[in-house]
């Protein structure tokens, strides 16, 4: 068991260059900086954001730890979302993201490169990607109607963010680079979602907002990285 843990940690920390290490350190410091704002008193939000940005970076590196860190983030983020009446986020994080993160570890573990110790990336063909987008649009409409019946604060945005996140995670588990494109849309929607409490007086979730801003930048960077890896594997 001890050897397994040592090998696991060694593989997770392999194939990081100085720029990628610096990016990870910046992610943590970016969230911790929100502690200097007096309005941000919720430590659960701080930890949710730290585990969230860590999961995003590790996933971008193709590391299994991304799913473990993502599971912890899902639980903490669901608690924060419940306090702001974002029930779509709660439902998706607890009943969808947690099981998918567990399955993600199993699925990726079968496709880890023995050279880079990262998940082997691939791309989704345009026709299949368009079909996925159509299914997403229908799912968003249905879920938004359900959330409206639950008196959700922002049913359409919450539904879009939640449904897109589910499909993004499914594509991520299947190692498709295009899941980062969906995350870019999700991140923009969630920035709007978490700016809303500042405007309507429900609170000032600075750490969570900072997390989504980081996600947006990270998604763009990681999409470029994954596409390069896909092209490299195709050669």
Tell me what you see in this structure.
With 235 residues, the protein is mainly alpha-helical. It has 9 helices and no strands. The chain is globular and about 50 Å long.
End-to-end CA span: 38 Å
Characterize the largest beta sheet: strand count, sense, and whether it forms a barrel: none
Structural class: mainly alpha
Average pLDDT confidence is 90
Model regions low in confidence, pLDDT < 50 over at least 5 residues:
none
* Oligomerization: single chain
Order of helices and strands: HHHHHHHHH
Number of helices: 9
Strand content: under 5%
- Could you tell me the number of beta strands? 0
Gross geometry: globular
Helix content: over 70%
Gyration radius over CA:
18 Å
Sequence-ordered SSE layout with sheet pairings:
Layout: H1 2-12, H2 18-32, H3 43-60, H4 65-83, H5 87-109, H6 126-149, H7 155-173, H8 179-200, H9 206-234
Outline of the structure:
This protein is mainly alpha-helical and 235 residues long. It is 77% helix and 0% strand. The longest helix is centred in the last third of the chain and has 29 residues, at 206-234.
Question: What structural keywords apply?
Answer:
0% strand, 9 helices, 235 residues, mainly alpha
